[in-house]
Amino acid sequence: MERSHLYKNLGIQLDMAVEAHDVLQQERQSNIAGVEMYKNKVGHSDITTVKITSPEGEEAMGKPMGNYVTIDAPHMKVNNRDIHQELSGLLAQELSKLLHLGPDDSVLVVGLGNWHATPDALGPKVVNHTMVTRHLHKFAPEELQGGLRSVSAIAPGVLGLTGIETAEIIKGVVEKINPTVIIAIDALATRSVERMATSLQIADTGITPGSGVGNRRVGINKETMGVPVIAIGVPTVVHAGVIAHEAIEMLLQQFHTSPSLYRLYKGLNPDSMQQIIEDVLEPFGRDLIMTPKEIDILIENTSRIIATGLAQALHPSISSSSEGLQYLQ
Amino acid sequence: MERSHLYKNLGIQLDMAVEAHDVLQQERQSNIAGVEMYKNKVGHSDITTVKITSPEGEEAMGKPMGNYVTIDAPHMKVNNRDIHQELSGLLAQELSKLLHLGPDDSVLVVGLGNWHATPDALGPKVVNHTMVTRHLHKFAPEELQGGLRSVSAIAPGVLGLTGIETAEIIKGVVEKINPTVIIAIDALATRSVERMATSLQIADTGITPGSGVGNRRVGINKETMGVPVIAIGVPTVVHAGVIAHEAIEMLLQQFHTSPSLYRLYKGLNPDSMQQIIEDVLEPFGRDLIMTPKEIDILIENTSRIIATGLAQALHPSISSSSEGLQYLQ
Amino acid sequence: MERSHLYKNLGIQLDMAVEAHDVLQQERQSNIAGVEMYKNKVGHSDITTVKITSPEGEEAMGKPMGNYVTIDAPHMKVNNRDIHQELSGLLAQELSKLLHLGPDDSVLVVGLGNWHATPDALGPKVVNHTMVTRHLHKFAPEELQGGLRSVSAIAPGVLGLTGIETAEIIKGVVEKINPTVIIAIDALATRSVERMATSLQIADTGITPGSGVGNRRVGINKETMGVPVIAIGVPTVVHAGVIAHEAIEMLLQQFHTSPSLYRLYKGLNPDSMQQIIEDVLEPFGRDLIMTPKEIDILIENTSRIIATGLAQALHPSISSSSEGLQYLQ
Amino acid sequence: MERSHLYKNLGIQLDMAVEAHDVLQQERQSNIAGVEMYKNKVGHSDITTVKITSPEGEEAMGKPMGNYVTIDAPHMKVNNRDIHQELSGLLAQELSKLLHLGPDDSVLVVGLGNWHATPDALGPKVVNHTMVTRHLHKFAPEELQGGLRSVSAIAPGVLGLTGIETAEIIKGVVEKINPTVIIAIDALATRSVERMATSLQIADTGITPGSGVGNRRVGINKETMGVPVIAIGVPTVVHAGVIAHEAIEMLLQQFHTSPSLYRLYKGLNPDSMQQIIEDVLEPFGRDLIMTPKEIDILIENTSRIIATGLAQALHPSISSSSEGLQYLQ
């Protein structure tokens, strides 16, 4: 069975467009119609842009048309402030390309996720560190007038804690304060162990239903919110099923030389692989996640990197992150 | 200068109706027209009900017409589960008298306050422990159908962290989910050191602007929300100005025998007392609070007492708090 | 390659004696000399006692001679106070069998682990909830004299945060306060997804080097501490390598019918399996853990269950956990 | 009654030498024999050094002979990273003057206080952010050999949580690891509202019994520990009694013109003032503290400032705090 279908059956969402693209290309051994990919390197980071340009690409990728920018920065894990600053600057730069903000545009930052489940707490932590100005805006001292944009921020919580669809809460707030754009922060699942806490995805398509560590139930995007939604995500977990599957795949490669096994493998009931993996993961199923032991600290650092990047991208007057931090908690 | 005016000038809100009433009565040496007060004792607790019954009483008390029930329970501080359970039961009982819920009515619990400022974090902590059911409601197993009411809960944060009026966020959510009633939890300021973390106020008038540890800016009540709002408050701080003033008052009593001083005192420029106290509290002013050293643990316990009381009051099927806790986090 | 050796090479410790025993028995298809096992059922819980009775058994099991009691309680995850109380009572009962405390014996509770890494924070959290009495002991009111035992508690942190061997810190304290016995609490790794946060192991052999989520470096036992050490552990993680291996094993079982594959498998270079799994887990290796998404709350509840059980086992006068909780934070 | 005696009777400790000196000088209207004071200004900060040079000064000040350096930095409260860095550098510089470390000397950082009581949690939070190297020391890469000093850190907790004298725990660890010097971090009480979270005291006399927010019971100094102890403190609370007393004093000044009152005041039973204040503060007494509402965030920032300053002072190779932070959590 193709990996893409297997993942689907196992409820493993490929949150990162670059990963969905890799899986597809590997299966098809060809480019995917309606999908373009560009790579370049900045400092220590690799930037990969995936563009989904047609309904055909949308269908194949299982993601809406739009731009998905991935910043892979293995050094994000190093606890060095200069490196974190470099990454904040890079995020600000890529974010600005998708934001196209006018001088008077206002922004609502939404921190998705559950602050009581560490690997899902990225969004609320970014909100903690976000420099909000909407309430100060009209009273800001002269010298800041030019620079300070109106920014507000909420952490709506998760359905299990509020009893309310997260999208309902956000929409209710949006209708009250009418932001020009929403920036939604969410923790993602990845299929690559290397990417955990070392990668950032910025997408101008908002949040897709079923995505994120919390498997958000309802989409948070232009259709549901009425304003553009930029999503910023960081992979913090790998679905346990991915590890199980990787192990099996690697074993089978060992046997490639053997035609007899190859036949056996091909003869294997397509559902067996899925059955095996589900058996291994019982009773937690999709709620069983793989994460680094020190995830608590990785989330804390990553949330500061993002908040500083936001401050730079949203407030033109804030040139260096040092200024930016002036307002961060 | 009368205490009531001094407090007003110093920005010291008397959040507890029973205290506002005491101050007035002491000043006027008489009953206050349009205000009634009843006392009774249940177990180890004193229950005082203040009823504001006319615009005249409203004017005098600086609080809207309605019912204010105070449960004074000095033993609330004792870390004993049986005592906490007794208090949860008492809260449930008094709350039910003001709620008048029909079988199909739904409730939105709102935890006001700042989870990053311990003495103001009572509301958000109650929300953490609240048993939400709105999302489960339609799917609840047979045996619960009769008992489980639709309950949702949010902790909207504070203006300084979100950039959005708390009332705006709540109203936005209310318009989406249309609860029958709102129960708002807030940390209060008291003028009585004894009451800190040992007292509960339940009011059917909602949240008054300027009240609470966070000096909520906009009222959260039937006028602003469109549905009835029951407020549950626990005093967690004493305004530092109250202590300063108490000390001065006590000193002056020492001198009561002296006519010469009494003249001096009466001759004292009414603003001097206010000036003295403001000087003492500089530079923090009204943000300088008095609180017990172990406030962190007192808040944790009190939030569990309230959450358990809510579970009993809102879910008829939950007879004992033991069942109630089944759903609490 | 035998599973026991594979785990060893992968640095996967079998913290639970009952699991080490199962693996061995499966490999040898026979009883293990010097190891006895007894099972019985109490309420909803299964209690399994593994006794290692000879150096031969020690050698085979890779664990010191002594008693290992496992309480498997799948319902531990249910958030119901009555169930938690039943489990606290069961823990108290099994613990007492291994403690043999005299009326004047004193106890030091040690919470091992890193409070900044949720799945490793069980020990410090139990210490938070532990009722300490050593400092009150001589001043306790009459009516408690008979019941209150001298109990102290420390959370020494981990090498990475202190720069000091945990065992050194504990030994230093032990030499100052001379407890009769140490009870060490630690988070464990399991090979069984079902056991996470639903199982308790009590051992009178103390902490073995390399065990626990934190892979404790130095043993904490009678040899190193000079006093008996009882270890209480709860599995909170599964090593990712276990999942990878389980998946492979299950796949191979699919092929059991095929002699040709069986030959291939047998012919497989013993190190390949290990290599496969290490490749899958790079770059995190043994620091990559599998844990339920809601581990934060599971740890909070489990730590309260243990603290309440300790209060009952250590303080004869505390019959019901309700009294016990009177002293818990 | 003299303020110094009143404070003593009320159990109000003057933790800051500079404040004890001011009170004395005000009372005596003269210099204090055996006590010297020097002031200078660096950047935005005022540095005051108090030297107690004789037993006579010791007696008068109620503090042991030695050096007490106070850095008053009102801008510490501004949330700006550059300002925090300047303060870290200043702390490092003043600390080095008292430390006199040789190249191979090792340091134990001790974070005093209760991590469950926010205003007392400064010490443990500094430990969280401290760069420990003792365990890495022998394995450090070549290029760091010259720079990395052996540093360890513990947060021993408080008597109420451990049942063990804090000094006993520290002494036990000291005897195991034999540091050259101890640096103890503690939250202090001040009599000046302005100083809260804006002042640092460095003393080469260690911790005096009864000092700190937690009223440490046993001294932590060269006598009890056997090695020199440098204390770093930040005032985080004002004893409520101080506010009460300040208010009274200010009122009395209003009346200075009146001889009749002055007589009355002088005739006032010396104990009355104390009685008044104790009455005002009942039932919490000395556990009633005054603190800014946002103390949680002030403590977080201050702990990072101190940890960065320590990294610079202890590790010669760490020139800028940016490098320093590389190792901080």
From TrEMBL, chains A, B, C, D:
It comes from Heliorestis acidaminivorans. GO terms for molecular function: metalloendopeptidase activity. It is an enzyme of class 3 (hydrolase). Homotetramer. Residues 1-15 form a propeptide. Its EC number is 3.4.24.78. It comes from the Bacteria. Belongs to the peptidase A25 family. Initiates the rapid degradation of small, acid-soluble proteins during spore germination. It catalyses: Endopeptidase action with P4 Glu or Asp, P1 preferably Glu > Asp, P1' hydrophobic and P2' Ala. InterPro entries: Pept_HybD-like_dom_sf (IPR023430), Peptidase_A25 (IPR005080). This is Germination protease. One of its GO terms (biological process) is proteolysis. It holds the Pfam family Peptidase_A25. The gene is gpr. Keywords: Hydrolase, Protease, Zymogen.
